[in-house]
């Protein structure tokens, strides 16, 4: 009994010491309370597979009272914004560019033969299945003014079988590169600080810019190697098609790495230990992944949450990577995404370099 009491006393003293060490540091108190609350609020609104709103292209070659009433009933559901196009090629080009997520085509003889062709952007397989099911239900409910039964002809573009691997593997590549490079950058600088070598380096003739470049270039090389490795595995093992340009993929990845490396360096400037750097890294990585559109479409998120996604470089890289794999888009189609990655990368690099003392 005496030994058990002494063991409990030692355990109580050890627990008291650990809790004091944990709660004495203001940054640790911050990690215990603030990140879970922020993540709960953001993820509670952002994490949803429901498609509450979608842009739908319409080619109404019939243009009759019945066809107009049918389309008006679909728009009245509040889930779709119909954009009219004069020619099928215009609507299909809009879907390839990502401006619409589905296309409804009504032939000139719709009054005699009520057949509707429904094209869905299959590059986002989850959303495509949801939009396809919801549009079919909306069209069936709205087909009252149409004489005779309405026939729906379905077709999935870019991913005919709606294979989830074709959608997720390019996104996994983007997430792996983000996690690996961000954590490596954050941990490498903090490790130098903990070992005491950072101060020695900064009092040498080595300039601040040279120090940053020397730290970031090896990690950037690792990131590009991961991009090539995962691309080879995706094509060779998982049979994911790659229809774009490899040079474009490497160029977009380089712009993307500017942001991930800059964020990692910025984290290292605030963290005093490797433990704090790891906690900060995961606190940053989780919102970046959730708000990027990797699993949950950005269009389904509330408007304030959508505004936050504008600061997420992963959002723009995912668009470029998935389009290069599944659509083979022309580089000129991604000028906005490339520009945003460049701006976010330059901003994160500038802030991190200024923070390096």
TrEMBL record:
<protein>
    <recommendedName>
        <fullName>Transport permease protein</fullName>
    </recommendedName>
</protein>
<feature type="transmembrane region" description="Helical">
    <location>
        <begin position="279"/>
        <end position="299"/>
    </location>
</feature>
<dbReference type="Pfam" id="PF12698">
    <property type="entry name" value="ABC2_membrane_3"/>
</dbReference>
<keyword id="KW-0472">Membrane</keyword>
<feature type="transmembrane region" description="Helical">
    <location>
        <begin position="30"/>
        <end position="48"/>
    </location>
</feature>
<keyword id="KW-1003">Cell membrane</keyword>
<dbReference type="InterPro" id="IPR013525">
    <property type="entry name" value="ABC2_TM"/>
</dbReference>
<dbReference type="InterPro" id="IPR047817">
    <property type="entry name" value="ABC2_TM_bact-type"/>
</dbReference>
<dbReference type="GO" id="GO:0043190">
    <property type="term" value="C:ATP-binding cassette (ABC) transporter complex"/>
</dbReference>
<feature type="transmembrane region" description="Helical">
    <location>
        <begin position="333"/>
        <end position="353"/>
    </location>
</feature>
<feature type="transmembrane region" description="Helical">
    <location>
        <begin position="166"/>
        <end position="190"/>
    </location>
</feature>
<dbReference type="InterPro" id="IPR000412">
    <property type="entry name" value="ABC_2_transport"/>
</dbReference>
<comment type="similarity">
    <text>Belongs to the ABC-2 integral membrane protein family.</text>
</comment>
<feature type="domain" description="ABC transmembrane type-2">
    <location>
        <begin position="129"/>
        <end position="355"/>
    </location>
</feature>
<feature type="transmembrane region" description="Helical">
    <location>
        <begin position="216"/>
        <end position="240"/>
    </location>
</feature>
<dbReference type="InterPro" id="IPR051449">
    <property type="entry name" value="ABC-2_transporter_component"/>
</dbReference>
<feature type="transmembrane region" description="Helical">
    <location>
        <begin position="246"/>
        <end position="267"/>
    </location>
</feature>
<keyword id="KW-0813">Transport</keyword>
<keyword id="KW-1133">Transmembrane helix</keyword>
<keyword id="KW-0812">Transmembrane</keyword>
<dbReference type="GO" id="GO:0140359">
    <property type="term" value="F:ABC-type transporter activity"/>
</dbReference>
């Amino acid at each position: 009994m005496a030994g058990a009491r002494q063991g409990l006393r030692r355990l109580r003293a050890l627990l008291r010491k650990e809790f004091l060490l944990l709660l004495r540091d203001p940054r640790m108190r911050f990690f215990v309370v603030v990140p879970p609350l922020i993540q709960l609020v953001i993820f509670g609104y952002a994490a949803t597979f429901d498609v509450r709103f979608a842009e739908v292209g319409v080619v109404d070659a019939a243009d009759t009272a019945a066809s107009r009433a049918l389309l008006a009933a679909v728009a009245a559901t509040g889930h779709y914004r119909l954009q009219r196009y004069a020619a099928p090629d215009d609507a299909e080009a809009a879907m390839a560019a990502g401006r619409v997520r589905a296309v409804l085509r009504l032939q000139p003889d719709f009054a005699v033969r009520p057949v509707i062709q429904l094209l869905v952007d299959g590059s986002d397989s989850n959303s495509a299945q949801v939009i396809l099911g919801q549009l079919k239900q909306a069209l069936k409910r709205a087909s009252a003014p149409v004489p005779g039964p309405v026939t729906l002809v379905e077709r999935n573009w870019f991913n005919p079988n709606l294979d989830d691997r074709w959608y997720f593997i390019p996104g996994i590549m983007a997430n792996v590169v983000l996690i690996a490079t961000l954590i490596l950058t954050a941990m490498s600088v903090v490790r130098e600080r903990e070992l005491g070598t950072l101060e020695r380096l900064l009092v040498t003739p080595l300039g601040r810019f040279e120090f940053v470049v020397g730290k970031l270039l090896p990690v950037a090389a690792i990131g590009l190697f991961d991009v090539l490795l995962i691309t080879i595995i995706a094509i060779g093992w998982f049979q994911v098609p790659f229809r774009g340009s490899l040079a474009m993929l490497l160029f977009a990845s380089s712009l993307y790495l500017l942001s991930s490396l800059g964020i990692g360096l910025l984290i290292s400037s605030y963290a005093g230990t490797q433990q704090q750097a790891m906690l900060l890294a995961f606190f940053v990585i989780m919102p970046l992944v959730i708000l990027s559109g990797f699993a949950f479409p950005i269009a389904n998120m509330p408007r304030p949450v959508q505004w936050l996604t504008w600061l997420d470089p992963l959002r723009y890289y995912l668009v470029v990577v998935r389009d290069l794999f599944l659509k083979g888009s022309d580089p000129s189609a991604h000028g906005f995404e490339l520009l945003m990655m460049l701006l976010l990368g330059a901003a994160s690099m500038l802030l991190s370099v200024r923070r390096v003392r």
